[in-house]
Amino acid sequence: MDPKKAARGLRIGELAKLLGTTTKTLRFYEQIGLLEPVQRNDSAYRLYDEDAVETARLVIGLRHLELTIPELQQLVHDDGVTTRRRRLLALMDERLRRTYLELSLLQGRSDDLAARHAALLATPRDRPPDCVCDALLRPCTCCALAPAKTA
To answer: pTM to 2 decimals?
Structure first.
């Protein structure tokens, strides 16, 4: 950061440009208490000092981890008990646990769908054209319901 700008503080547009985000995003973070402008100048522009820039950089970085707003708030604000690293590790452990569970469920769904697909592909050709019993993994009842062919 330019030392002259650091001395007077960065305006919100300058901070947004520095961090590759938008002023709208920074205003939102301010609104929910993740970011606070240090002061306002005579024209009422928000001014951010080095600490605010580092906090904004932290928030933007943590958002890349797809953390929720409450999780961000938990990490940005010092709880006085646990280090930020430990809190982030705990959040990531939980996120990994949930992701592995979701992957297991998706794998089960994928296996089931693949089995039903293979069963439908293997449907005998003499079945009625609308028969999907094999995809439902049940004995075919379509043949019993099909009208009898007359000779």
So the answer is: 0.68
The predicted pLDDT at position 148 comes to 56
Q: Residues 26-41: pLDDT tens digits?
A: 999 999 999 986 777 7
**Integer Cα distance of 15 and 11 in angstroms:** 6
- Residue 113: CA count within 13 A, CB half-sphere: 6
What average pLDDT does the segment 86-97 reach? 96
> Which two tokens mark 44?
């009422």
Pairing of strands 10-11, 46-48: antiparallel
The C-alpha atoms of residue 82 and residue 99 are separated, in whole angstroms, by 25
